[in-house]
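Example record for the data management plan.
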Amino acid sequence: MRIGLSCTTIEPVISRHQIDGIGTYTKHLYQAYLKNGKSVTPISFPKNGLKVSHYPNGQVFPFSYITSTLASIINTLPFSIHSNIEKKLDLFHATDHLIPQFKKTPVIATIHDAEMFKRHQWIKNRHLQHLKSWGRKKSLDWVSHFITISQAMIPELTQDCGIPEEKISVVYNGISSWWFEKVTAEVKNQTLAKLHLPEKFLLFVGTLNHRKNLPRLVKAYLALPSDIQQTYPLIVIGKAGWDSKESALAVQQLETKRAGRWLRYISDEDLRVLFQCASLYLHPSLHEGFGLTLLQSFASSTPVLTSNVAAMPEIADDAAYLVNPDSEEEIRAGMLKLLTSPSLCEDFIKKGDERVKQFSWEKTAKATLAVYDKIK
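Corresponding structural encoding:
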């Protein structure tokens, strides 16, 4: 089978080597396919001056996704692509939300999150976002079959996107074995010194936007006893995303009170160290389609506090302390209980160690290829 794989999120010119969750998913699928001798062609939409793919056999669409989508909707014609690439494909997998229309080639689309189709209040530039969401919803008609990353996503796709349930397959994300490798005490000390961080701290990782719930997390943290705050500063890692003003103000308040730090970007190597050093990982998100950082924390043997909504309880199972993300008091009480109950933390660490063994990118790739076979 000749597979076309959308790689816009991992093209170096576009990603600037700062790969997000969707990019991680795409990268590991691509690597797994190559490792297993599959015929795969990376295909990207142009952005940031991209004209030639970074990949040896990669292809680049001639026009941006928005331009191509609107043209296809208006004239009902498939996307125009150079080098007659469609003739070289048996199937195309859109790993991100950029779904092309082909004349004959079936398209598989992974929907990581249905929020972009329904919650405009979370995204800046409302008029443009309505146009984008309209175009994205229209592009769903071009898909032969959908992959989503948790059972929790199925009702959202059926109810909010109008996708028939029989056209949806669930394939969980994975985690690299690299995350399980324990770093030495020397590396930990060097990394903490380089980043000017203390030995003990609480950790949050994620792009700053409304759904990550940072303002509520910061308020809950600042309501903890002062001695807890002094012992465990809150370290926030993540770049500012759309609608991030409130979140950024919350983190700035944290820094003003000398109760935490905001590290906008660090390397994967440093991030792994911080996951292994953290006393507690905090992820009280309002919504997630999966929650990859939960697995990273489990692999790091760090106890987790997360939300009891969307995909978080499905992915965490019984390996994390669950709270109502709308309740500052539940978040505060949960943090305090974990930080003052070593035995409870040890219990969650043991459960996390077992839970994370259920996930791997090899499993993800194998299950995804099974979907391809079913469709083709």
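Summary line stored alongside the record: The chain has 15 helices and 13 strands.
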